[in-house]
Automatic annotation (TrEMBL), chain A:
Biological process annotations from GO: protein import
Organism name: Thalassotalea agarivorans (Thalassomonas agarivorans)
Protein keywords: Cell membrane, Membrane, Protein transport, Transmembrane, Transmembrane helix, Transport
Keyword Cell membrane: yes
Listed name of the protein: Outer membrane transport energization protein ExbB (TC 2.C.1.1.1)
InterPro entries: ExbB/TolQ_transport, MotA_ExbB_proton_chnl
Keyword Protein transport annotated: yes
Signal peptide interval: none
Family: Belongs to the exbB/tolQ family.
Chief localisation class: membrane
GO CC terms in record: plasma membrane
Lineage: Bacteria, Pseudomonadati, Pseudomonadota, Gammaproteobacteria, Alteromonadales
Transmembrane segments: 21-47, 88-111, 135-156
């Protein structure tokens, strides 16, 4: 119990040292990772069944080479691609936002430093320390947040691109009867 | 009245006072008619004057004895005074010797007590200063009066401090010490932030803080008033102030200001959000205005894209082609041209898709532009603020940071405002662009496929 209380206290202290911007950064990182987890769940669970269904639907068709078939295939690929790319651009923008928010924290922290200078009229390092920590901690947090997201986003984007290609290739344009005839 | 009689009367009075007579012609009443008359007048006057003088001399001689007498009196008076003075001088010297002896005796007897009284006086002075800044004085007013009188009497006269007074100082010090370790509540008049006075229950936490009704108070010694701080610390601390007021048996966590109110007072000087934004100046307001415009555009886009997206999804699910949504309008091309070949149909489809796309992407670029421009305007404000700062340096030199603070505040606040506007805009653009891109994808990629599926089903 005391242990938990200690942890809460530490977090509270950290947030207070970092100021309000740190809270915003925390919220942004939380949203970003929620979206990333949603994507991961989709990639490892829902995507497979979706892919199987689409492939079965395509292979159950008799006609694979007409104008109609071409366009249906294109629509299927596009659906799959948009399903794979869903929310990716949003996650990407959140990754970009993190360092920006860090910069915002830096500037607000610097404002506090100058406030202290204006009030006390001196450059006393000890009294400016809180402003400096408010300037540096959000910067660090923003960097950490965007670094943590960058790898996930890059992987997800490459996966989406690759899987779209693989899916498109798996929908063959050769008619079943032709294939049978060749066999 | 004739001249003569007049003159005589005057002469009489003059004689009586023993004064010098006025020249007779000076009091000639009437102007002489001619020179003869003047001569006569002069003659008469002369005669009168000699008479007068003779009279005076006689008088003087008669009074010689009287004057001798007066001289004698004066001399005896002088002799007496000299005698008194000598006697007094002697006694003064004797007294001085006595005083010196007594002082020496006193110093001998005082010995170390002398240092003690010095220390006592210093302690009394220090304690007075301490009591003036201590919040305990809010509960026990008037403690400094005794100390004030004591230090003054110690400093001015040769009067020694009595045992009672020394003990009283001891008592006051001890009381301050004891009270500073206690949590006590008392009733007092509190001046609220809006200036109204109310009787409230005040809780004193040692010698650190005064709290009442979950708010921190300050003690102003000069007016002996207890006032609510105009700006209170954050809620987390106020909660602890409320907790201490609630009756509880166990220990309570309380945030106290170890400086006895100095830190809390600095809170009042720190500007709040509104004042901060004002520091940004006109550039700051421009940024905020642009941000507001961007927000409104984003809101409008969000609503319309949401509605269009919902209609498109409904269209995807339904068999009926309705023309209230972009997908329906694209699909209706096939229904309108039932007999054309595939090539022409495809051309007509792409034409109708091209008609729909601008409606979906409209004003999104504006949001993108705002997200880029806002930090730039912030940069402009930064430069303007720095120019002000350097102007202040040119005028007043770099001696006082307070003079430069205004420009620096403007410089930083505009940067902050630029970022505050740009960050949500970037986010909103990403989100809205994603939505519109999804709908356009449906139109471009899927519409032909959907038409193909429908025609197959129909066929």
């Amino acid at each position: 119990m005391v242990f938990i209380y200690d942890i809460i206290n530490t977090i509270q202290d950290f947030i207070e040292t970092g100021g309000d911007v740190l809270v915003v950064i925390a919220v942004v990182i939380a949203i970003m990772w929620l979206l990333i987890f949603e994507r991961l769940v989709f990639v490892f669970a829902a995507y497979r069944t979706l892919k199987k269904q689409a492939q079965q639907g395509w292979s159950s068709r008799t006609d694979h080479s007409s104008w109609h078939a071409h366009h249906i295939r294109q629509a299927m690929v596009s659906r799959m691609s948009s399903a794979l790319n869903n929310n990716l651009s949003l996650i990407q923008s959140l990754v970009v936002l993190c360092p920006l928010l860090g910069l915002l924290g830096t500037v607000t922290g610097m404002i506090e430093v100058f406030d202290v200078m204006a009030i006390s009229g001196s450059g006393n390092a000890r009294s400016m320390a809180s402003g400096v920590s408010k300037a540096t901690i959000p910067t660090m947090a923003g960097m950490v947040g965007s670094l943590s997201g960058v790898f996930a986003v890059t992987w997800l984007q490459r996966f989406a691109k690759r899987e779209t290609q693989i899916f498109e290739d798996s929908l063959s344009l050769v008619d079943n009867n032709d294939a049978m005839a060749r066999a | 009245m004739s001249t003569i009689s007049m003159k005589q009367r005057i002469n009489k009075t003059i004689a009586a006072f023993g004064l010098i007579a006025l020249p007779a012609f000076a009091i000639a009443e009437q102007q002489a008619a001619n020179l003869d008359q003047l001569l006569k007048q002069l003659e008469q006057g002369k005669i009168a004057q000699t008479k007068q003088n003779q009279q005076r001399e006689a008088d003087f001689k008669a009074r010689v004895a009287e004057q001798d007498n007066m001289l004698k009196n004066a001399r005896t008076e002088r002799d007496n005074a000299i005698a008194t003075s000598t006697a007094l001088e002697q006694s003064f010297q004797a007294n001085e010797v006595q005083i010196a002896n007594r002082t020496e005796a006193l110093n001998k007897r005082l010995g170390e007590l002398k240092e003690l009284f010095g220390v006592l006086q210093q302690v009394a002075g220090d304690t007075k200063g301490k009591f003036q800044t201590s919040v305990i004085s809010a509960q026990l007013p008037g403690r400094d009066v005794f100390l004030d009188e004591f230090t003054q009497s110690m400093g001015s006269s040769t009067k020694l401090a009595s045992i009672e007074e020394i003990e009283r100082i001891w008592f006051e010090l001890q009381r301050e010490m004891t009270e500073s370790g206690k949590l006590s509540s008392f009733n007092g008049e509190v001046v609220a932030a809006d200036g109204t006075r109310r009787q409230q229950e005040i809780i004193r936490v040692g010698g650190f803080n005064l709290v009442s009704e979950g708010k921190y108070l300050e003690y102003i010694f000069e007016t002996n008033a207890i006032a609510e701080l105009k700006r209170q610390p954050s809620d987390r601390y106020l909660a602890s102030a409320r907790a201490i007021a609630a009756d509880s048996s166990g220990p309570v966590a309380f945030s106290l200001d170890p400086t006895g109110g100095s830190i809390l007072n600095l809170l009042v000087q720190a500007p709040n959000t509104r004042e901060r934004v004002d520091q940004g100046g006109p550039v700051g307001y421009v940024i905020l205005g642009i941000g507001l415009v961007g927000l409104l555009i984003a809101l409008e886009r969000f609503v319309s894209l949401f509605l269009i997206g919902r209609k498109v999804n409904r269209q995807l699910k339904s068999e009926q082609v309705s023309k209230d949504n972009p997908l329906g309008r694209v699909m209706s091309v096939q229904a309108d041209n039932p007999n054309v070949d595939n090539e022409t149909l495809e051309l007509k489809l792409s034409e109708s898709i091209l008609r729909e796309v601008p409606k979906l992407t409209t004003r999104l670029t504006l949001i993108k532009i705002i997200s880029v421009v806002a930090p730039l305007i912030g940069l402009l404000g930064t430069v303007v603020g720095m120019i002000n700062t350097f102007q202040a340096i040119t005028l007043f030199g770099t001696g006082d940071p307070k003079l430069m603070a205004g420009g620096i505040s403007q410089a930083l606040v505009t940067t902050v405002l630029g970022l505050v506007v740009a960050i949500p805009m970037v986010f909103l653009f990403a989100y809205l662009n994603g939505r519109s891109r999804n709908i356009i994808n449906v139109l471009q990629q899927e519409s032909t496929g959907i038409i193909a599926e429908r025609s197959e089903k129909g066929a």
